Structures are given as C-alpha cells and as structure tokens.
Amino acid sequence: MDIDSTLIDEEVIDLLGDASGHGEQIAAITERAMRGEIDFREALRERVALLKGLPDTVFHDVIGRTHFTTGALDLIDECHRRGWTVGVVSGGFHEVADELVRRAHIDRCLANGLVVRDGVLTGQIDGDIVTKESKLAALTAWAAEDGVPMDRTIAIGDGANDIPMILAAGTGIAFCAKPIVRQTAPHSITTRDLRLALPIIDGASAEGAR
C-alpha cells in the first residue's frame, strides 16, 4: 500500500513544508501531483528544494505528528495472521517511513531518500525517485520473491501514481482517493478505515475461486 494519506492520515511532505515555512506552497503542489495534473518527479524535486536548510531533527518532529489511519494496524495484523507479506511503496521519505514501518511491523518498504549534510537538508533527493513505475515494479518483484502470483496480490493507494499498481494487482483498491483514482480502480473505499479493505479482499478471493 501507499503510505501518505493511506497508511497514515497525513502527507509527510506537507508536514515538512510546514516546518520549512513553505507549507501552503508545497501542499498546493502535492495536491496537483496526486491528481495527476503535473509530473510527479518534477513536483517532488520542486517541493524538496523548498526544504533546503531544515535541520535533520525535523524528522523526529514530523514522525510525532503522524497518525496511522484508522484500521491500518488491524489490517496489517490480520494480513500477518493469514501468513501474508505487507509492503509499503511511497513517494515519501525513508527518514520518516522507516520508523512507521518499524512501528507497524511492515515487511517491506520502498521510499525516497533526502540528502542531509552536516545535519541539514540540502534540498536534494538521494538516489532515484520513486514513481508510479517503480511502485508497480516493487509490487511485481516482491510478489515474485515470495512466490505469489499477481492475481493473488493486493494494492491500495489514493494518488495518481498508485494507479498502475492498483490495476496490476489481483485486488486493486482506491482508498479515500483522488477522483482519477476512484474512476480507474476496480474497488473503492470512501471511509477512512482500512479494515474495510478486508471484505473487498475476501470477496475478490471468493470470486476468483469460482
């Protein structure tokens, strides 16, 4: 699943934006990118540039402002009870995502990194940018590594860059998503409770077994 606005209620880049004093500007870019109106790579570079000069202590502060979406931990626990692997794919940042992954006992994580020098953010991204293509590639690779056929995979997200993985998964779910995602996804949840994914997953499994 996606992290920002899916696993958690917040958009981490927007929280970092608040700390930088560019909150409204960054939030506006985020909204356009999630709606698919602008290229995600360029949108991310533009937003990260506005974070230049922030101390790296901001990550601890931002983690403290995040909240797991209602039902997220219950969904993850149920998936593990069933013997499933849970992964997250995010256009957000490892500096925050890794702690969320640890707390939620998530098995795999793909996210961006931020360049920090002498305890200060440089406004640059470390390594390749996570895109809709790399989210799909992670789903495909993790499924192959675990020996799970694609028709038995599940993908959940809310933004335009989640669409390819949602369509490729055996069960693809738009979660409180942008209009373009709701219109495209096979399934949609409009209430912020990730436990509502379970009836969809079970229904799809039953349908596939017929």
List the SSEs and their pairings.
Elements: H1 12-20, H2 23-34, H3 40-49, H4 58-64, H5 72-81, E1 87-93, H6 94-104, E2 108-117, E3 120-126, H7 132-146, E4 154-157, H8 163-168, E5 171-175, H9 179-184, E6 187-189, H10 197-209
Parallel strand pairs: 1-2, 4-5, 5-6
Antiparallel strand pairs: 2-3
Helix pairs in contact: 1-2, 2-3, 4-6
Task: Give keywords.
globular; Rossmann fold; single chain; alpha/beta; three-stranded parallel sheet; 210 residues; three-stranded mixed sheet
CATH topology: Rossmann fold
> Alpha-carbon distance between the termini?
27 Å
Task: Give the helix proportion (percent range).
Answer: 40-55%
Mind telling me the CATH superfamily name? HAD superfamily/HAD-like
* Tally of individual domains: 1
DSSP helix count?
Answer: 10
Radius of gyration: 17 Å
Give the low-confidence spans. Answer: none
Largest beta sheet: strand ordering: 1-2-3
Q: Name the structural class.
A: alpha/beta
**Quick one: overall form?**
globular
Order of SSEs: HHHHHEHEEHEHEHEH
CATH architecture: 3-Layer(aba) Sandwich
Pathway: Amino-acid biosynthesis; L-serine biosynthesis; L-serine from 3-phospho-D-glycerate: step 3/3
Protein name: phosphoserine phosphatase
Family: Belongs to the HAD-like hydrolase superfamily. SerB family.
Catalytic activity: O-phospho-D-serine + H2O = D-serine + phosphate; O-phospho-L-serine + H2O = L-serine + phosphate
